[in-house]
Amino acid sequence: NACDPGTPVCFPVTVGQIPVQPAVAGPDMVCEGDIEFYSVATDPNATGYTWTVPGCATILSGDGTNSIELLWSAGCAGGDVCVTADNDCGSSAQTCLTVGAEQTPAAPAIAGPLDVCAGEQENYSTATVPGATDYNWTVTGGLIVSGQGTASIAVDWTTPGAGQICLVVTNDCGDSPQTCEDVNVGDIAALPVIAGPTVVCDGSVTQYSVPVDPVATGYTWTTTCGTIVAGQNTNAISIDWNGCPGGGDVCVVLESDCGPSAQVCLPILGGDVPVAPIVNGPDASCLNASETYCVTADPNAASWTWTAVGGTVSSGQGTDCAEVTWTTTGPVQICVVAENGCGQSPQTCFDVTVGDVPPPPTVDGPATPCVGEVATYQITQADPSATSFTWTVNCGQILSGQGTDQIEVQWDTAGANCSVCAAAENVCGLGVDGCFDVEVLAYPTADAGL
Length: 450
Fold this sequence. Notes:
Elements: E1 29-31, E2 35-39, E3 48-52, E4 57-61, E5 67-72, E6 78-87, E7 90-91, E8 95-102, E9 115-117, E10 121-125, E11 134-140, E12 142-146, E13 152-157, E14 161-171, E15 174-175, E16 179-186, E17 199-200, E18 205-209, E19 218-223, E20 227-230, E21 236-240, E22 247-255, E23 264-270, E24 279-280, E25 284-286, E26 290-295, E27 303-309, E28 311-315, E29 321-326, E30 330-340, E31 343-344, E32 348-355, E33 362-364, E34 374-381, E35 388-394, E36 396-400, E37 406-411, E38 415-426, E39 429-430, E40 434-440
Parallel strand pairs: 1-8, 9-16, 17-23, 25-32
Antiparallel strand pairs: 2-5, 3-6, 4-5, 6-7, 6-8, 10-13, 11-14, 12-13, 14-15, 14-16, 18-21, 19-22, 20-21, 22-23, 24-26, 26-29, 27-30, 28-29, 30-31, 30-32, 33-34, 34-37, 35-38, 36-37, 38-39, 38-40
C-alpha cells in the first residue's frame, strides 16, 4: 500500500487434465445368458468410470471402476458397451464397443418325403442357420450316404418298417432342440406261397389262395388254362378248369406302393379217377391182433377210405396204410377206396382168415392106475390148428412126450383128486387146459396079524 509493499502470500494450485479417451476391451460376440468381463486401461488422472450398457444387459459388479462383470440376459440381441473416464475436470470422450449376441438355434424343420420305399435314396434338408457350426443328422432304418454336417443330406432307406430322421443344429452358443420326423419305409410284398389242389379234373372248380400281406395293395392272378371266375385282385380265387384235361399253371403277383413282387406260379396237373387199389398185408391173423395193410401207391389218389368187415380200423384212415384190429374169427375182409378230386376208384377187398387160440383138447388114458405105475395118456380130440401141447400132471411126473399129443406118466402119490391136463397151442397162442381125472390107487398093506 502507500506505506510499503507487504510480504507476498502464495497458494499452491494443481492444474488437472481431463482423462484421455479410454479403449474398451472385452468380447464383441456373446451368447444369451453369458457373463463376460469388459475393462479399460487404468488412467492415473481418472477418479472414476461411467459405464453404459444395453437394457438387456446387467452390470453384476465393478460399476464405477475400470472393469465390470456383465450379464447378457436371455433374448438379448446385443448392443454397445460404453465408458467414460471421469475426474474433477470432467469426463473423457465416450468410447463404445459394439457387441453382437447370438442365441442357440431354434428347433429346425426337416423337409423331405416321409413315405418311402426300402432301397430308395431320398434327400432331406433344413433351412440354413446363420452362424451354425454343425448339422448333426441321425437316421433309423437307413444310412446317410452324403451331407452329414451340412443342411442337406441323402439317405438310403434300407430297412422296411418304422424309420426316423432327426436333426440337431449347433452354433457357438450350443445345440438346438432335436427335431425328429417319423418315416414309413415301405417294401414290395414278399414272395407268397400259393395254396390249393395241385391235381384237378377237367370241368372242376377249385380254389387257390395266398396269405394276406399287409404291404399288398392288390393281387394279380393269371392261369395258363381255365377261367378265373371269382376273387381277382384279392388273396383268394376260384378257377373253372373246363377244357383243361392237362391242368395248367396258377400264378400271382402282389402289388404294393413300392412296386410288384416277383411272379409266383403253382403247377397244376390234370387228374383222373384213381384205379382200384391193390391191398397188401397178412391174409391170416388172430382174434384181437392188430395188422397193417397198405395199398400200392397211386399218384392220382389223394386219400383212401378203409373199412374192416369183422374188425376195426384203429389208425391210418385216409392214408395209404391202415392198422386193423380183428374182432371176429373166421373169414373177414379189409376193403379200401381211393379218392381224389375227380372221384372214387372201385372198392377193393382183401380176404383174411382170423383164428383164435385152440379150444381145450380131449385127454384119455387109464383112470385108476396104481402107485408106481407108468401109464400112457394121449390127446384123442384136438383143434386141427394145434401145433403143440403143454401137459401138466399132479400126483405124478411126466417121463416123456411133453409138447406132443402123447405122454408117459409115472404116478408117485395115491389119491382120488389127481389129473392129467393138456393145453393146445397154435400161432395165436396157448389155449385153455383140457383135463382127465385120475384116481391113483395104493397097494394093499400086509395084515400083521396074519
